[in-house]
Design a protein that fits this description.
Blueprint lengths: L2 E4 L5 E15 L3 E7 L3 E5 L2 E5 L3 E5 L4 E19 L1 H11 L9 E3 L2 H15 L5 H29 L5 H20 L7 H7 L4 H12 L3 H19 L4 H7 L5 H12 L3 H7 L1
Antiparallel strand pairs: 1-2, 2-7, 3-6, 3-7, 4-5, 4-7, 6-8
Helix pairs in contact: 2-3, 3-4, 4-6, 4-7
């Protein structure tokens, strides 16, 4: 399914389904990008991000990016572009600003529910703009909540007196987090993560733990386990193949970690999903 709709207030909503696609665009407004199934690769300057169904990506006005899909099965992509006047009214009504937001966020809870509801409206050809705009406000409201957790809350955890320093350190830590999220299935070297974030290894280790409550390695293991859970639930791939796909080298270590984290063996989890 493919459509692109511009509302009378200049908010935009787009959807596409493709196996293979490459597009280079300039983000016209604050844009939220989602995918449903599969993955999409985004290039933003020197940053290479992989967007999965359990994340969403925020891009600011004027950001140039290239998105790529290369999949054996169709990938559904969905994006929402917010007009600046609509955003300004929303931020003024909610007493909120956004000093740092262009990164990956977890696609979960209420924001997932509202985005899926909006996508259903649009897929069905909904024309009621009042209903659509209310749904867009709900999406923004729930992004506000995610932002507070992922940005504002993390800033408060960093042990620097100067706020501008905290903002800059968190920007670099988000680069490290993006690197882990996008390359979790590879053999990741801590030095490469630190270099990508423009931090020393020691500085990365100390500040990453402050912001995210765990070391980069612990965060990486958590991402791998989350990806394995999705594969167990949505595919019939053998466990050994999943182990290889998510970057683990030892099946027994994976099974032990999975059971410690979720209370079930991978096969038991699959059987009960």
């Amino acid at each position: 399914m493919r459509y692109s709709k511009t509302l009378s207030n200049h908010n935009t909503i787009s959807a596409d389904t493709a196996n293979h696609q490459q597009q280079t665009k300039l983000s016209g407004e604050l844009t939220l990008h989602f995918i449903f199934g599969g993955d999409a690769r985004y290039s933003i300057g020197r940053r290479e991000l992989t967007l999965y169904p359990d994340q969403f990506l925020i891009l600011n006005k004027g950001t140039q990016y290239t998105s790529r899909i290369d999949s054996g099965t169709p990938v559904d992509s969905f994006s929402i572009g917010f007009d600046q006047a609509f955003l300004r009214d929303f931020w003024n009504d909610n007493g909120y600003d956004q000093p740092l937001n262009e990164t990956l966020y977890p696609f979960k809870g209420d924001i997932r529910r509202h985005v899926q509801m909006l996508k259903s409206y649009m897929d069905e050809g909904q024309q009621n703009e009042a209903l659509i705009n209310e749904s867009l406000r709900q999406c923004l409201q729930n992004y506000n909540i995610i932002y507070a957790e992922e940005i504002s809350g993390k800033l408060d955890q960093l042990k620097f007196t100067n706020r501008d320093t905290r903002v800059e350190i968190l920007r670099r830590l988000n680069l490290a987090k993006e690197y882990l999220l996008s390359n979790y299935n590879r053999n990741i070297n801590l030095g490469d993560v630190a270099a990508h974030a423009c931090l020393s290894v020691n500085h990365l280790l100390r500040t990453f733990k402050q912001a995210f409550g765990q070391s980069p390695h612990q965060y990486l293991v958590e991402v791998r386990l989350q990806r394995s859970r999705r594969l167990l639930k949505t595919t019939r791939l053998p466990v050994n193949q999943i182990v290889s796909m998510i970057g683990f080298e030892c099946a027994s270590s994976f099974i032990r970690l999975f059971k410690n984290r979720y209370g079930l063996t991978p096969l038991k989890y699959r059987a009960e999903s």
